[in-house]
């Protein structure tokens, strides 16, 4: 009987360690995202296609989050995207000025981010705000969407 109890105890201990490792991994991913998204200067690479903006990308559970900040670190907008769908996040001073579409339509807008599945453009408004458009275009790539820093 003690052999069975010892075996059961080892199995339970192993299961507990595996569960703890899984929870720790998930918590690390979640805390990394929450500690950067919405911040002025997140601990992430600036992947902006424009020298007038800072763009940061976070990924969690297959969803890509893209945040746009100005050069002073003010968060202007953020979107989430996965599987060709884009949602506007309630983050930033221009969160109410973000639209989504299938293609970029305003040629006067500046491309601030493009990765082949989504492109984000910025267009200054007369009231001092900025309108952003996030376009999901599977045909879009760095060269055709104007990506690359300084373009």
UniProtKB/TrEMBL annotation:
Cleaved signal peptide residues: 1-28
Domain of life: Bacteria
The entry's keywords: Signal
UniProt protein name: Uncharacterized protein
